[in-house]
Specification:
single chain, alpha+beta, Immunoglobulin-like, 6-stranded mixed sheet, 27% helix
């Protein structure tokens, strides 16, 4: 296996990170390359599906080479005639997450449909997809020479009858703006007005939150009303299945709150109605849940008391590659990190070098590294909340099975909720009145791990919902700003 890999690497041209003249190598169109991605934790195979030549390229012609390293995979495009590297971009995928789950580790194979989008080259090019290993080192996993003049490349319009494009914000040239598209998922044809209302709500939420608020003029935002046969989404644990446009479902990787959309082709076809840099999928369901995958999809549901948090949090993952700063919630991953390796996420560190923390320039003056913050108390309160929730669920089920009256069960539920409310109040008081709340430090607990990983602030939108506090914190904001500049700066 190692010998084969060495041959592939040898055939790939040297990477010269020079400025790329867009007009020399590309035309102003989008080339969408679809492929099937199959495997388990130890193996993966790529198989080319179809290639599409579509509308205007939405990316920044001045940033053909991505200036930062994020994502499990990275696409490289080489001009065959000159051997020049002319385009790169990192991304992650549902398949990459699947590889870290229990079934994949047991050898159960799965297939995902995926796409990479590149500006359309003028002449024959070499497409290379590379993947990071446990040390975050890239190595090729797929190569393909493609001729953009090949008549097999599909040029038909992806538009479907009934799809309706709504331009929410138009600030001009897609090449110098971040182009966002919000797709309707789980909306019937008679729910168009609800879609418009939801679209307005989340557009306003987005532009009322920093660092987006002060940079509104750098965005174009579209909504695409896509009709589903049924309203809502799949909820497998509840035995609920809906016929929706993009096949959204809770219980992704057997995690009940995790909602993803897996019909890649339908999603890409609908999004291609407009120039887009990022896809957001709005699920017509009043329930807590969603998901965010870097440079792929942001999924959020339109209801629940935590809907604002879910929208902003998941977009942080998908748009800026931010990591999760929480560490006390259950996740589906079993083999996600390599000890002793610094994660790529800009807001997470393994603290391998205490003198050179990745957000060193933002550290509050005089703050110790690592930073003591009362984690034992925080953990105790979180454990108490989890125990009370479990106790309430079990008690109510036992009462139901024993034939207790509705009134008796409601009384028990009220009693449990009262205790939960008191504990939640204590946790919120701990956070809101914390002496380090507004400080940037190195706080242990992040990346789903209670120990060994650290985050920059006590609390942020990448950690947990905290009432009306909708702050990413300066470290996360700077990562988002870098992403915005990647799409917009000259």
């Amino acid at each position: 296996m190692k010998k084969i890999l060495c041959i592939v690497v040898f055939l790939i041209p040297l990477r010269v990170q020079a400025q790329v003249d867009f007009s020399t190598f590309f035309v102003n169109q989008t080339l969408r390359i679809d492929y099937f991605h199959t495997g388990d934790a130890k193996t993966e195979v790529f198989a080319l599906d179809k290639i599409y030549r579509q509308g205007e390229w939405a990316g920044n012609p001045g940033n053909c080479i991505q200036p930062f390293e994020l994502g499990m995979y990275k696409v490289f495009v080489y001009d065959v005639a000159s051997n020049n590297l002319i385009y790169t971009k990192g991304y992650s995928s549902i398949f990459a997450e699947y590889q870290t789950t229990g079934p994949a580790l047991k050898g159960v194979k799965r297939t995902c449909h995926e796409s990479v989008l590149i500006p359309c080259p003028k002449r024959k090019f070499l497409l290379v997809i590379e993947k990071r290993d446990g040390q975050n080192i890239l190595a090729p996993v797929f190569t393909q020479v493609i001729d953009p003049a090949d008549y097999h490349i599909i040029t038909e319009s992806p538009l479907r009858k009934g799809d309706d494009v709504i331009q929410v914000v138009n600030n001009g040239d897609p090449h110098r703006k971040v182009d966002l598209v919000i797709l309707a998922e789980g909306y019937r044809g008679d729910e168009k007005e609800k879609f418009k209302k939801d679209l307005a709500y989340y557009s306003n939420l987005f532009f009322s939150t920093e660092p987006y608020k002060s940079r509104k003029d750098l965005f174009n935002l579209y909504g695409v009303f896509c009709i589903s046969e049924d309203s809502g989404t799949d909820e497998p644990r509840q035995g609920i299945y809906k016929n929706t446009r993009f096949g959204s479902s809770f219980n992704a990787f057997d995690l009940d709150r995790y909602c993803l959309d897996e019909d890649n082709k339908s999603i890409r076809d609908a999004a291609a109605s407009v120039p887009y840099d990022a896809i957001l999928i709005m699920v017509n369901k009043d329930r807590y849940g969603g998901g965010g995958i870097y440079n792929w999809q942001t999924v959020f549901c339109t209801g629940s008391p935590w809907k604002d948090y879910v929208f902003l949090h998941e977009l942080g993952h998908a748009f800026a590659g931010l990591g999760d700063e929480y560490f006390s919630s259950p996740v589906a991953y079993e083999n996600f990190f390599t000890p002793g390796v610094e994660p790529l996420d800009p807001n997470i560190t393994a603290l391998l070098d205490t003198a050179n923390v990745k957000w060193k320039k933002y550290l509050s003056p005089g703050i110790p590294v690592p930073t003591e913050w009362g984690k034992t108390k925080f953990d105790s309160l979180n454990h108490r909340i989890a125990s009370l929730n479990e106790e309430m669920t079990k008690s109510l089920e036992m009462m139901r099975q024993a034939g207790a009256s509705f009134e008796a069960r409601e009384e028990k539920k009220s009693e449990c909720l009262h205790r939960l409310e008191n504990t939640n109040r204590q946790l919120n008081d701990f956070i809101n009145n914390h002496p380090l709340r507004d400080k940037v430090g190195v706080f242990e607990g992040a990346n789903y791990m209670s120990t060994g990983f650290y985050r920059p602030t006590i609390m942020s939108l990448m950690h947990k919902f905290n009432g009306d506090d909708r702050s990413f914190g300066i470290v996360n904001e700077q990562a988002i700003i870098e992403a915005i500049q990647y799409y917009t700066a000259d």
